[in-house]
What we know:
27% helix; alpha+beta
Amino acid sequence: MARTAMVRWTAWIAGVLVLGLLAAWIWWRESHTAARWRFEDAMEAYCGGLLAYEKSSLFEGMSPRMELPHDYDLGPDAHYCLLGGFTGTEVTVARLGPDQYQFRDVGRRLLPPFRGSLLPVPLTGGWRGAADGKSVGVLLSCRGKEDFVSVTVGSYRRQNGSDEEEVRQKQMNGWLDADLYWARFATATAVKAAARWDCKAEEGEVLRTLPPVTGPEETIGANGTCAGLPFTRDKRLDTIHETVASGSALYERCEVEASHYFDDRYTFSARFGPSAPRKRDQDMSHDIRENAGADGNALWASARCPGDTERALFTGYVPPEAATVWLPGEKGKETFGLPAFREFAERSAKRHGCTDLRLPTVKRGAVDGRRQ
Length: 372
């Protein structure tokens, strides 16, 4: 009798233990608290442990249900990872020394280019960075060093083109909720990575909004990166595409159209900090080792800017049709490109506190082939 009772008692205890273990397993798999614990444990090592997944003053925090499919090292103190699935958000976090970002191949990996449908708009709140509707970039300069901390977040769009455009048109400032969310994540991650790498950098304020997205407008309305260009030199010019002018921008761009005459646009751009050498190597097909010059329909200039070891790079493109396409009975020559490029570079350099601006001077035909 005693033996039977003992067996029953043992079976009962075993049953309770099994039920307890099952309940614990279910709780571990299904509860929000356990999911958060698992997520935090994974994030300690994921992408070098540098991602600011935590809720903070700069960022509202990341869902513990976020998928973490893949990450790998790009080099010393440089990481790439995916968030939210294999087609989800791409994140690149890197500490950049002067010996790294000089080279094109390194620059492509550590400083991915902007690739959204919008012109890159500078971040607000004192941050050095930009957003273009598909990617966000933030750069922190290490005080007393030549190093930078760079964070790039890209490919976070999940809607198809028509849906995204429809949503954007309904927004007052042209941005989606995801744009601000990932911009805040990028700033918080940059701060966390800087602290990890002993980089004393000046932080910005909490991002509460992004500058309004502006559409095409008449040349007379230019008040951003296209402001001050000599539009009266060519009566064909009618439309501009520009972004907000900011002394903290990593990238600036101005596009000018003669929409009734030809489709191609005058394009003027500026890149600062580590982005400048990569742009120089990757996007310019000709040799621009000199600080300023012209080649074919391309123009370039450079300047020395505070806190940057590399010279800022200014580039311009003159549409070939600008010298050949006129209405019947009209005839002229291209007169806008070089003066406009010089004005664009001068204003941009002044806005960023840059000195030693080197500009192309003489042009023959559409654009001169000599270099300065």
